[in-house]
Specification:
single chain; alpha+beta; 18 strands; binds zinc ion
């Protein structure tokens, strides 16, 4: 954490002064903060919380967090599609993929061109006789293919996990500091994820694109930048215009409306300023201190595979068990 940022680490209160303005900084019960957090997530499918809990952050700081349990799917749209099924399918039949820092439409034609796109003749995702694309359609296929060590039987597949095949609805619990606590160094987002969007969907760390491509698979995101895995359900690896119109986030003037809350408690704002210009002087985590003195992040470009560059302050926890407690200083293996 750059020391210049530290004076601005006055917490979710500071984050909240960003969009929420004029808060009671001395509220020992954090009740006002919890109310604002509940309001921020009012478009999410909340299952419990937000409530105040004790937590241990990523560098061992014991502090107060909010805990909220949400269904991992948006209420306002149906996720998908991801994989086209035939090489003649257009963009409406598929999602998007990252290529050279940009997003590309996963059309049938794109999946038919992968040998040229990646300069490797081993790519062959479709049946050359029929034009049918190989894709994962069942839970078993998704479990075998959507993991770091892709089952070799699923090389040359378009990989997707269809939400309707999951044995149970994915519900995720977030434990995030009410007041951000300085870290000795920025942390990557591939441990805890980046944060959570106002609609309750996880803003994840980078997708493991090299491992996916190394297995001759493509694991598309839908046009909203999300896809499904069997553990945490639907989650984003990119922020697209789907998250533009936060129904409940107070408008922050030249910054547009807040998109989410990072795992360290800071606010997450759109990639560009409301007037379409790029925010100035972003640090390596894609954060900076705004004119009002509060530190916040701006999400990366949709094709960058980095919703945040890193986490500036100490991270809380993402839990699969709603009754679990958060000790983020214990590094868990990630799925
Ligand atoms: Zn993913
Ligand atoms: Zn800004």
């Amino acid at each position: 954490m750059p020391s210049s940022v530290k004076p601005f680490l006055t917490g979710l209160c500071a984050m909240a002064t960003f969009p929420f303005a004029a808060l009671a900084h001395d509220d020992p019960t954090h009740d006002a903060q919890l109310d604002r957090i509940a309001s921020f997530f009012s478009a999410a499918d909340i299952r419990s919380g937000p409530e105040r809990v004790d937590c241990t952050l990523s560098e061992g700081e014991k502090t107060a967090c909010f805990k909220i349990t949400v269904a991992a799917s948006p209420l306002t749209y149906t996720p998908g599609p991801w994989c086209p099924t035939h090489i003649t399918d257009g963009a409406d039949a598929g999602g998007i993929w990252f290529l050279d820092g940009k997003t590309v439409d996963v059309t049938g034609a794109f999946l038919a061109q992968l040998a040229e796109v990646y300069g490797d003749t081993k790519w062959q995702l479709y049946d050359p006789d029929t034009g049918a694309i190989r894709y994962t359609g069942t839970l078993e296929e998704c479990q075998a293919a959507a993991r770091p060590d892709v089952d070799p039987a699923y090389q040359n597949y378009c990989v997707q996990c269809l939400p309707e095949t999951l044995p149970q609805e994915a519900v995720v619990t977030y434990v995030i500091p009410l007041d951000p606590v300085a870290a000795t160094r920025p942390a990557p987002t591939n441990i805890s994820g980046s944060g959570v969007a106002y609609n309750g969907v996880r803003l994840d760390g980078p997708a493991p694109v090299d491992a996916i491509l190394g297995a001759y698979t493509i694991a598309p995101f839908d046009d909203c930048g999300g896809h499904v895995n069997p553990h945490v359900g639907y989650h984003y690896h990119a922020v697209t215009d789907c998250l533009d119109a936060a129904p409940t986030a107070p408008d922050a003037g030249d910054h547009g409306a807040q998109i989410g809350i990072a795992m360290d408690g800071f606010a997450i704002l759109p990639h560009l300023m409301a007037d379409g210009t790029a925010p100035a002087d972003l640090d390596q985590c894609k954060g900076h201190v705004g004119q009002d003195g509060s530190y916040h992040y701006h999400v990366g470009e949709a094709g960058s595979n980095a919703i945040l560059g890193c986490l500036t302050a100490q991270a809380g926890c993402t839990l699969e068990d709603a009754d679990g407690s958060c000790d983020a200083s214990v590094r868990r293996p990630r799925h």
